[in-house]
Amino acid sequence: MYYSLFEIFSIGVGPSSSHTVGPMRAAKRYLDNLRANGDFAKVARLEVTLYGSLALTGLGHGTIKAIVYGLMGLEAEAIDPEKPYVVAVERDNILHLGQEKAIPFVIAKDIIFAKDTFLPEHSNGMKFAAFDEAGKPLLEEVYFSVGGGTIARRDEINKRIAREPYNVPHQFDTCQELLERGEKLGLSISDMVLQNEVSLRTEAEVRTYILKIHQIMQNSIERGMKAKGILPGGLGIKRRAAEIYASLEEKFRQNDMDSLMIVDWINLWGFAVAEENAAGGQIVTAPTMGSAGILPAVLRYYERFANHKSPFEVEDGVVKFLTTASAICSLYRTNASISGAEVGCQGEVGVACSMAAAGLAAAMGGTNKQIENAAEIAMEHNLGLTCDPVNGLVQVPCIERNAMGAVKAVNAARLGMRGHGDHLVSLDSVIRTMYSTGVDMSNRYKETSLGGLAVNVANC
Asked: Which residue in 132, 225, 276, 355 has the most C-beta neighbors within 10 A?
């Protein structure tokens, strides 16, 4: 099933696409359904129940504020994180449903954390229930946040997405199908994605959106390199990107550079975006917010350190990078998962690393086979990566994992470009392996903060 670039790269606020953007969209959709059913005016009370990973790590991942935003009718792409929406609800115990109807809402009572209950469909489950003045149920719906901000209602979960397949010229379920189609038609992976996107909207809209998400990615790097202070959440983690940036700039001024300084710059850019995400800044899901620093860091590596002939060549490379990365993500979403709550961090940092490696190989002129090899190498060496955020915050080990994932992506792309695309393990095989590994992985290591570093770091 083809996933559009507009689905894969969405704009929202941190720190988590599955725990923040997804629940916000689910709450907003539930609100819209209340209106559609004619129940909106009757609502006197609302109750929200969070299950599994959402319940266990929702506090650290910003799920409460996301639910409030959504029930107020706010959109993830346009939210102003500086406005004190949640503070007002906590203070007054009043929720302005859809910003129109004031109802009593006590967060500590009306948002229930069912930490011991994992719904069978997915670890990130949530239930919305509305009642009238007499306590009579009006509408109850269960949603799942399946990764990258994508949601599915209970009756849609088996489809993996709440829509019918797109009518596009290039459908592909596997990378093998994608490669065969490209060879038959003489098209690059980027060409096929662009043709698919232009069949859904105008060429100008497609290019404008690609350049927009690229700009937001770069803006998040710039903000992250300048911001200082302590990240929210209680761990007392100091933002490091600004200090690293100052150090690198000083070395550059003094001409005190070494042969591995490029790695330092990539680390810096990964840190900058990941810290912005942890602080609740505006981020592009790539494919999730927990892994949102990898693609921007590798993109900036391409822009700064590749040999370009003109600004147009750079812009063309950015388009190739993001469209190719989008195709790779579509394969993971079709055949596996990008949800840390479902398959561990291999589904977030691992997929982002694979996407970035493929995108970089494409931007550098790699063949479809070299691109596939780069994507495969990147994921092969992220297999089994657990999701174990300390205190349920997208900070430790998440920030450093973004930097490491970016460096690994560059290396995977370079390895892929050194060969001719012939290799033993296919990308399709590694995607299947990633998913089966995630299914076998204990829930303790899948964004629940019940295992790994989340429980051992205090003893170190």
From this structure: 355
CA distances from 230 to 235, 241, 244, 278 (A): 9, 12, 15, 10
Q: Please write the tens of the pLDDT for every residue from 234-283.
A: 999 999 999 999 999 999 889 888 889 999 999 999 999 999 999 988 89
Written as six digits, the tokens of 100 are: 């129109």
- Cα–Cα nearest to 358, from 309, 424, 286, 307: 286
Cβ-Cβ contacts under 8 Å for 17 (sequence gap 6 or more): 10, 147, 148, 149, 285, 287, 288, 289, 290, 292
CA distance 205 to 197: 9
The rounded mean pLDDT for the chain is: 93
* Alpha helix (H) residue ranges in 279-339: 294-305, 311-335
Nearest to residue 25, comparing CAs of 171, 149, 201, 205?
A: 149
- Answer yes or no: are the C-beta atoms of 148 and 18 closer than 8 Å: yes
Cα–Cα nearest to 189, from 200, 201, 177, 199: 177
Amino acid identity for residue 279 in this structure = A
Cα–Cα dist 19/60, whole Å: 9
CA neighbor of 360 nearest in space, from 395, 393, 408, 312:
408
Give the separation between CA 158 and CA 166, rounded to whole angstroms: 17
DSSP state of 101: E
pLDDT level of residue 305 (50, 70, 90 thresholds): confident
Sheet with 137-147: strands ordered across: 111-114, 45-51, 125-131, 137-147, 150-153
Contact 395, 453 (CB under 8 A): no
**This prediction's pTM:** 0.89
Q: Identity (one letter) of the amino acid at 62?
A: G
- Inter-residue contact 348 to 338 (CB < 8 Å): yes
CB 373 within 8 A of CB 423: yes
For 55-76, the pLDDT digits (tens) are 999 888 889 989 999 999 988 7
| Residue pLDDT, tens place only, 133-185 | 999 999 999 999 998 888 999 999 875 555 688 999 999 999 999 999 999 99
